[in-house]
Predict the structure.
Amino acid sequence: MTNIALPNNIEKLKAYSSAKSAKLTGTTWLNANESPYARVLEMRFDNLNRYPDPQPQAVIDAYAGYAKVEQTNVLMTRGADEGIELLVRTYCEPGKDSIAIFTPTYGMYKVTADTHNIAINELSQAQLANDDVGSLTAAIGDAKLVFVCNPNNPTGAIQPASKVAALADKLKGRAIVVVDEAYIEFCEEQTCVELIKEFSNVVVLRTLSKAFALAGLRVGFMLASEALLAPVRKVIAPYPVSTVVAQIAATALTSDAITQMRRQVSILNLAKKKLIQWLQDSEFVSAMLCGEGNFVTLQLTDKQFVEQAMRQGLIMRPFVLFGEDNWLRISIGNEQELKQVENWLKQCQVTEEVS
């Protein structure tokens, strides 16, 4: 065991607890907002003895076309998580600067800030949704980065592009508005990507992990003005994207693959409506947050029902939200997986009657 002392901020740091952190066993996995559609690939690699292109041009070109931006507006990263870290490392000074977040929201904003000794100005989702832009900018204060998860995980809430634009306008010269669009394919019309053409202080983060069904590949994109990306390009690792990852990502961004992705999104959005109806009909669901994204977050009358689901092999994501520990997020799976959820809800009824 090493005797080297750790910095105070590392000793106090709480690691991000992902859906895969706990060593759970089960048969139906609806806890990580993954796509239920597995991709089958046949590929040949005969150049792995060579270093990869730091920013593989074929992927950059394809994603630029998909997102309707210029190639110079695209930076490929190891998942959107690396994009978060790169922005913090590039634009925030440790021990001096801060970021603003709207909770409850994606936990990696806080973990990344804590890791880099960056202060956190924690505002609420209610403030983001209800306050006028003047009040919001005053509450944001001196934060260098303002993270807007849109749609928000785990609530599904989404802010219109017009409000994000107004916020970016007010924060010109003060802060960068980072719009995390990990789930945007489930509501494409709500994207803020056009704002990067108008505002030099807007960044849009994207991923292939959700709708593109490539969570295991770890591919993300940072979309922003060329001027905003220039400093980030100095900070990113020299070879962040492997040859294998680049080739698979390129296949996911062909015209046919994008059409298939959108077809799958339509199926999942319809399945979500069916799940919402089941949950609305259940007497064991006391509240529900069913905004955009491939998930539904709900509050149970009794958290024992989560333990019951786990005993049946049905793995969903428990949450502590608004100070209460009986919240649950259910990812939208395929028909068979959601049938397991329906069976679980029926079993809750049986359990309640027996007790």
Remarks:
- The longest strand covers residues 314-321.
